[in-house]
Here is the input.
Amino acid sequence: MTENIPPLPAEPGRTLLPPHLVSGYESFLTGRFKSERDHYRHLAEAGQKPRVMIIGCCDSRVSPEVIFDVDHGEIFVVRNVAALVPPYRPDNDLHGTSAALEFGIMGLRIEHLVVMGHARCGGIKNFAQVDADPYQRPLSSGDFIGKWMSLIEPAAARIGHAREPMANYVEELALASIVQSVANLRTFPWIKTLEERGFVKLHGAYFDISNAVLQILDPATDRFVPLSPQVHAEAFEEPRF
Ligand SMILES: [Zn+2]
Here is the structure.
């Protein structure tokens, strides 16, 4: 006689997320979380004390935690389309990035504020393409990306209208946009004051996923210089046998 065994109930929640997220979470539980249990307990009890805040792009290929090889709790990150900082505008609109800045600077007392743009940014590319097409219609009120991207108009005005070769123009615009965002940070009165008194340092960075080159804004010249070129060259060296 065969026993009538009822089927095991499906694990609750397991089907509520895509399978690769479920397996990723399980791998986190049995790997990193298990081996760093004390560290996580400390983070939970002591709270976060990141010294660095990064304003990055939503682009899935540009994760600040991966690029800077940091752990949970080390950097305070806000990501938006194209890593833009709006100017200080105390009105009744909903200001997500400004709220994150206020929390990071005034609440967490962040010491370094990094605006990190990147190569092949869809937002920047879209702005350039729209600019290149004189037959584009004006923005509609429901075009959130278009409205958001209008933040780089001052940067675009500095370097001129879109032109060929487009890839070069998009890169030039991305770099100019980082300079603009850093300038916009200084329109927040508390950031300006804290920077002037030496409590906060502002930085610009530009990452290219194709070759892992990270360029840093030199405030003395407003030009970008590659970070750690020696280590970069060594990392790309062909192994010798
Ligand atoms: Zn982007």
Remarks:
- The two ends are 66 Å apart (CA to CA).
